[in-house]
Design a protein that fits this description.
This protein is mostly beta strands and 596 residues long. Helices cover 5% and strands 44% of the residues. It has 1 helix and 42 strands. β5 and β6 form a beta hairpin. The longest helix has 30 residues.
């Protein structure tokens, strides 16, 4: 009874405050003086242990054993560390002459430190971290980055992305769906790398080489392509493609003759061959080399052959595509150290203008591109409409030009990417408006029906007699950035007394059940302060996970007395909170039912 009276009194007092506040606000408005909003409450970055009457929370056990088998491998401006262990996560520190240089929380058995000084000694310290943030004693090793690189003599074109302009637009073009990705020189530790950041869902992003791969028989070897990158991530894909035509973006409905190698964290698949299992090396840069020979293909990783196929391409020239597919959340960050090709005949480059396929309106202010003899539009279109679409046409400044498949024989199919090209004469390269943009409209065989233009680029033919205008070039995009750190993804499972999962979360009898919460981390995670469990919006449990420092991932089992809840459905929400106020909380929810 006292509690009810106090609550009512509190509500009444709150009502008086609100009313008074309203009066004050009105008076303030009358006198035209500025009011200040109340300060925002502090972000929660700690969790206190708590167990309601219906819950029993787990306790920390002994501290974990220190990791074993620590190995540190040097490379140019970097160190790669690997170790053995099955702990939820690891706290990895890199120490230099001035103390701790880097500190990473990882849910993997590997980490790579970039942007280091060659020839300088560093010490790597790795501590195991359990579900409660308890840390082991460190495993340590010392090493210094090395300038040594693998043999690159078989590559005519090698780009280490350490020049004055990164990326060099005369060599590399980024193709993606509706500008969902960016590429640039990295920042911070990645300043000696090319980086690509993307939020493209399950769609691939392609780094296109303007230098075609020309096949020539050299003692049985026809050609090769190479990329050194930290991709694929745990749930991503790296695709090495060779397309016999001017294509920028492709998918599973590939143009005829396309050679495509699929690399995941655990398998590789070559054309004409079954998938081959490989050792997972996420978080670390690997050098992938695809070698084409007169008797088939072979794929190499860090100098060791891991897969082969009898497939021999029917063409002698192709467009190299380095494609990246993101994880389920669609956020990708790719670090690229080196790319190599066995041919180096790069066509002359003229920076293209800004191109838009969403603003076909003609503008009163127009001008012709300078310093060019013409160009080829390279487009990727898609539509879900199941009606005749081909042949496609492209309208530019009121003139219509035919578009054809980028590769002869490629048949358009609804819902799939379809690369097409159109040749434009110099007098069709009309730039409109203040933005000096080339405005295009792509149409199907029925003029009223237009496909979605996922990507468009323009390869221009320079005019030797005049020079292009820099003012007409598309400005460079902003820098690629790393996605923010997140907390490990959570899942929940209800278990019965025998430890078996309860089907559909429908309890058969009243009594004790176990709620199992699992947080599975990726390569690098934000620090975990703890978990809070709510049932029907009421907090029933709190589990701190930062005993010695931030937790990373783990598993926790909370005992619940289902008899304390009314019969019928109930809602469950588990919140994970970070030690970093800038990291968003994580959530996992479920519904469950108590029998009558």
């Amino acid at each position: 009874m006292e509690r009810r009276v106090l609550r009512r009194a509190g509500y009444a007092a709150g009502g008086l405050v609100v009313v008074a506040g309203a009066v004050i606000a009105l008076r303030a408005a009358d006198t035209r003086t500025e009011g200040r909003p109340p300060p925002a409450p502090p972000v929660q970055t700690t969790v206190k242990e708590f167990a309601g009457d219906s819950a029993l929370v787990p306790k920390p056990g002994p501290r974990p054993e220190k990791p074993s088998g620590l190995v540190v491998v040097p490379g140019p401006h970097r160190l790669q560390a690997t170790w053995s262990g099955k702990d939820p996560g690891y706290d990895v520190q890199l120490r230099g002459e001035g103390g701790v240089v880097h500190n990473q929380l990882v849910a993997d058995n590997a980490v790579q430190f970039d942007g280091l000084e060659d020839g300088v000694d560093y010490q790597v310290e790795v501590r195991a971290v359990d579900s409660y943030g308890q840390r082991s004693q460190p495993s340590t090793a010392r090493e210094r980055p090395s300038t040594a690189r693998p043999d690159e003599s078989r590559y005519a074109l090698v780009d280490h992305f350490d020049g004055t302009v990164v990326p060099d637009p005369a060599r590399w073009r980024l193709a993606n769906n509706a500008a969902c990705a960016r590429m640039s020189r990295g920042v911070g530790d990645d300043t000696r790398r090319l980086v690509i950041s993307a939020a493209c869902g399950s769609e691939s992003v392609a780094l296109r080489s303007r230098t075609p791969l020309q096949l020539k028989d050299n003692g049985g070897e026809l050609g090769r392509m190479m990329i050194e990158t930290d991709y694929p991530a745990r749930d991503g894909q790296l695709l090495l493609g060779l397309v016999p035509g001017p294509a920028d973006l492709i998918d599973s409905s590939m143009p005829p003759g396309t050679l495509r190698v699929k690399i995941t964290a655990e398998t590789v698949t070559l054309p004409g061959a079954e998938p081959v299992a490989i050792t997972r090396r996420t978080s670390l840069s690997s050098r992938w080399e695809l070698v084409l020979r007169t008797d088939g293909l072979s794929l190499w990783r860090n100098g060791a052959r891991i897969a082969s196929s009898a497939y021999v391409p029917p063409w002698t020239s192709a467009t190299p595509l380095f494609e990246f597919v993101g994880p389920p959340n669609g956020l990708s960050y790719v670090g690229i150290d080196t790319i190599g090709l066995s041919s180096a005949e790069t066509p002359a480059f003229v920076p293209p203008p800004r191109i838009t396929a969403t603003n076909p309106a003609r503008d009163s202010k127009t001008e012709l591109m300078k310093g060019v003899l013409g160009g080829q539009l390279r487009m990727t279109v898609r539509t879900t409409l199941r009606e005749p679409m081909t042949p496609f046409t492209v309208e530019v400044d009121g003139r219509v030009f035919p578009a054809r498949p980028a590769v002869d024989g490629h048949v358009f199919a609804p819902s799939f990417r379809f690369p097409i090209v159109a040749d434009l004469p110099a007098d069709a390269l009309v730039l409109s408006g203040e933005r000096k943009e080339l405005r295009i409209t792509v149409r199907g065989v029925t003029p009223a029906v237009s496909p979605v233009v996922q990507h468009v680029d323009l390869e221009l033919v320079p005019d030797p007699a005049t020079r292009p205008s820099r003012e007409q070039a598309d400005p460079a995009p902003g820098p690629a950035t790393r996605p923010p750190l997140t907390l490990a993804a959570m899942s929940t499972t209800f278990l019965d007394a025998s430890g078996q999962a309860i089907k559909d979360n429908r309890f058969v009898t009243r009594g004790r059940v176990v709620l199992e919460v699992a947080a599975v981390g990726a390569e690098t995670q934000a620090g975990l302060a703890g978990l809070e469990v709510y049932i029907d919006t009421e907090r029933v449990a709190g589990i701190p996970t930062a005993v010695d420092g931030p937790g990373i991932a783990g598993q926790w089992r909370i005992a619940l007395n289902s008899g304390a809840f009314t019969s019928g459905p109930h809602s469950l929400e588990v919140r994970s909170l970070s030690t970093d106020p800038n990291v968003a909380p994580g959530y996992a929810s479920a519904t469950w039912s108590v029998p009558g």
